[in-house]
Design a protein that fits this description.
single chain; alpha+beta; Immunoglobulin-like; 4-stranded antiparallel β-sheet; 18% helix; 37% strand; elongated
Length: 228
Amino acid sequence: TGGKVEVHHPSSRRDHYTNGHVAHQNTDHLSLTHTAHRHTLTLNKVSEEDFGAYMCVATNTQGEHSEVIQITGLPRPPHFTSSPHGGEGDSYTLTWETESYYPITELMVKYRKPQSNESNSVVPEPWKSTARVIEDPQDFPDLIHHMSHRLHPLDVAQDYEAAIRVRNKYGWSSESEHFRFSTKKARAIQQKTSSSISYVVLSVPNVLTVVTTIISLISGYSLQSGFL
């Protein structure tokens, strides 16, 4: 148990197609290898001319089966790298990475407050979106682009969710997975505490004024009563 078994019976024929054309010849750029039940098509030094659909078709007396792989110049969907717990009160800096053979020229972020578990509403809050053109697109030798974007203004001590798409010269990537984060919550607690303290401090003079007035009235009444 737990092993891997590959069964091919009866034997099959496999053909590889590149953009509709049969790949049947080995070159310095393209090579086909066959070992036992594994058939491999290898492309060396991929360029724009290699973009397109690659199909492997297996045929035997029982029928036919095919699989397609698409090679494209589009960026891969972004992957978030920022911490879910923000260190900023009314803003948050998203960080992520994406893989692209070409410089990223534009980004688009959408975000919103997630639906609260305590809410009776079945309609989530609408998305807000922001886009930014990259003024000086950079090439990255390892094809991994590390990027960031600051969202501001946001509510203090609030949960949010966001998703990102990025663009290169071939078009937009697919949307990232939704990422949940929050603005700094300690600051909100501090603000509430400070507000309570300042309220007490401000109320003390008013109390003293009232007490002083009452004492003055009582003293005046006593003096008048004694005089009479």
